[in-house]
C-alpha cells in the first residue's frame, strides 16, 4: 500500500511560542492528543499547497512565510497506515489570539514556549503521537534558536 503523504505547520508567533491544538477524543487517529496544524495531501497537491490549505482550514489564518523545513517523519498511525509527514516551521497572518478551530476535530489550543514542552506531556499517556510531538517540538525550537 502506498504511504499517505502529510504536511504540517509548526506555527510560531513573534514571542517565539508555538501553536498547538488538542485533537478531539472522537478522532480515529491519535485521539485527545496535542498536535500541530496539518493533514493529508489531496490528489495532485504539493506539500506547500496542502500546508496553505490546512492552515486556513484549521485556524482561519494564512501562511505568511516558511522559515525552515524540518526532516520528514515516517510513521505508522494507530490506524495501521504508513505516513510520510513533511513538517515546516512557519509564520502566519491573522488574529493569533483567535484561531478558528475546526468543529469536531479540535477541542482547545494553546501557545507554548520551549521551556513548557516537558510539562506539556506530564500526565499524558505514553504513545506514538506524544513521542512524535515531543521530538517535533524539540527539533522546531532548536531551529528557532539557531536563527531560522
From TrEMBL:
> One Pfam family this chain carries?
NUDIX
Q: Which UniProt keywords apply?
A: Hydrolase
> What Gene Ontology molecular function terms does this protein carry?
hydrolase activity
Domain Nudix hydrolase, residue spans: 3-134
Cofactor(s) the protein requires to work: Mg(2+)
Identification of the protein by name: Nudix hydrolase domain-containing protein
Where does this protein come from, organism-wise? Virgisporangium aurantiacum
- Name the lineage: Bacteria, Bacillati, Actinomycetota, Actinomycetes, Micromonosporales
Amino acid at each position: 500500500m502506498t504511504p499517505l503523504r502529510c504536511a504540517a505547520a509548526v506555527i510560531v508567533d513573534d514571542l517565539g511560542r508555538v501553536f498547538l491544538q488538542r485533537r478531539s477524543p472522537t478522532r480515529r487517529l491519535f485521539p485527545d492528543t496535542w498536535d500541530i496544524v496539518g493533514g493529508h495531501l489531496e490528489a495532485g497537491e504539493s506539500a506547500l499547497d496542502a500546508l496553505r490549505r490546512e492552515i486556513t482550514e484549521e485556524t482561519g489564518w494564512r501562511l505568511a512565510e516558511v522559515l525552515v523545513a524540518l526532516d520528514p517523519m515516517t510513521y505508522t498511525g494507530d490506524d495501521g497506515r504508513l505516513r510520510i509527514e513533511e513538517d515546516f516551521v512557519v509564520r502566519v497572518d491573522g488574529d493569533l489570539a483567535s484561531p478558528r478551530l475546526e468543529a469536531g476535530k479540535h477541542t482547545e489550543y494553546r501557545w507554548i514556549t520551549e521551556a513548557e514542552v516537558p510539562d506539556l506531556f506530564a500526565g499524558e499517556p505514553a504513545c506514538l503521537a506524544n513521542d512524535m510531538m515531543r521530538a517535533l517540538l524539540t527539533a522546531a525550537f532548536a531551529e528557532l534558536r539557531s536563527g531560522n
